[in-house]
Amino acid sequence: GELPSVEALEKVAKAAHAKFKDDQGGKNADYIPALAEVPSELFGVVIVTKNGDVIKVGDVDTSFSIQSCSKVFTMSLVMQESGEQVIYDKVNVEPTGEAFNSIQAIEEGDGRADNPFVNAGAIATVSLIKAKTAEERWDKIIKIYEKFAGSKLEVLADIYKSEAETNFRNRGIAAVLYNSNNLFAEPLMVTDVYTKQCSVGVNAEQLAVMGGTLANNGVNPVTKEKVIDAKYVPKVLAVMMMNGFYDGSGRWAWNAGVPAKTGVGGGVVAVVPNKLAIVGFAPPLDEQGNSVRAQKAIEYIVDTLGLSVFGPGK
Ligand code: GLN
């Protein structure tokens, strides 16, 4: 199928926003106390095409924490730096069918973290960045996120503080991985860098440009800067398809049929390869920790335009 026209995209984005803006489903994350304070009614929808067109509806300028959507871009960083095999060998790429913060999943298998998008695998991925110090590791992360977004990004200090004070489960996961030689740098340092990456503030437009860079095969469609090699994009999208929604990934593949990644901050970034990215942002989450309104908006857009990667198109 062809890339839909900007007019068609504007129409469907507006319709998706109108259709779901009053949906009361879901509940803000509260295991990170600061996330419970984010206004639940916020709702933004953005589409970025591979040509750099940006279609925006609703609350698209409000910064929210990127949370697990970050995992996509740190996986990209490690592959760009060290090649894809290191992810395949040291993290693995199998769906867990378990919650994002599952400890059982790492205990059950061969000790590896399973895939880069569950917390265990994301923490392992951070440990694979080549760096001598925590500062250097962090610097590489924020620099590549900024290239993906085409704009300056900052940590949301209140979110970072709130999660850093309460992230005992992630510290435990890092310790278990380290104990079985499946974490490749000091566990508390790695967990802290991971926590910081999850606290990066993005608005829906910035996250959509990040996704748009993947839709455009590794080149930022707005700044035209190359961020990662095109050959790594299918690897990222494959993991998004299989574990972007954790134990909700099968349902997402069934309903939407496009690779996507969610975060407990309420963001969902979906990528239609070679065409466009769609971001939905709304804080209330379903049982698996995935934004209710963002999912519905993206499903509606994909369905209306026939964008499923598995479908015949329209
Ligand atoms: N920072 C969050 C955590 O580690 C990310 C989880 C998520 O967005 N699913 O718990």
Automatic annotation (TrEMBL):
Transmembrane segments: none annotated. Substrate binds at residues 68, 119, 163, 170, 194, 246, 264. InterPro entries: Beta-lactam/transpept-like, Glutaminase. Its EC number is 3.5.1.2. GO terms for molecular function: glutaminase activity. It comes from the Bacteria. Keywords: Acetylation, Hydrolase. It is an enzyme of class 3 (hydrolase). It catalyses: L-glutamine + H2O = L-glutamate + NH4(+). PROSITE patterns: PROKAR_LIPOPROTEIN. Belongs to the glutaminase family. Homotetramer. HAMAP family: Glutaminase (MF_00313). NCBIfam families: Gln_ase, PRK12356.1. This is Glutaminase. The lineage of its organism: Bacteria, Pseudomonadati, Verrucomicrobiota, Verrucomicrobiia, Verrucomicrobiales. The gene is glsA.
